[in-house]
Amino acid sequence: MSRFRLTAKVRKNADYIALSRFLDDLGLPHEVVQPNAKGHPALRITLPTGTLMDHHIACTPRGWCNAPARVAALRRKLIEAGALAKPHSIV
Question: Which residue ranges make up each domain of the chain?
Fold first, then answer.
């Protein structure tokens, strides 16, 4: 699938919309990248340190998703990469 067609499909996907909005709010630049072979495309996120991190997403335009769960998974991944501070637990 061409990059243009893939990007057009991904931009209609609920996963992409929720994750893109979250990354925009954090001010982290990101782009859609094609899979190397089979598989799903990914969001390539540029971390504050300058390193790149890929986060795979679905490419179907109307895929059902639990947006808060997708954002929470990405948030955990960003915390592990050191791009976000770990939230303090309230006791």
Answer: 3-80
- Helix, strand, coil % (nearest 5) of the chain? 40, 15, 45
Show the DSSP H helices in 27-59 as ranges.
none
Picking from 88, 86, 26, 87, the residue whose alpha carbon sits closest to that of residue 55 is: 26
pLDDT over 80 (residue 59):
no
Structure tokens at 82: 């050191």
Does the pTM exceed 0.85? Answer: no
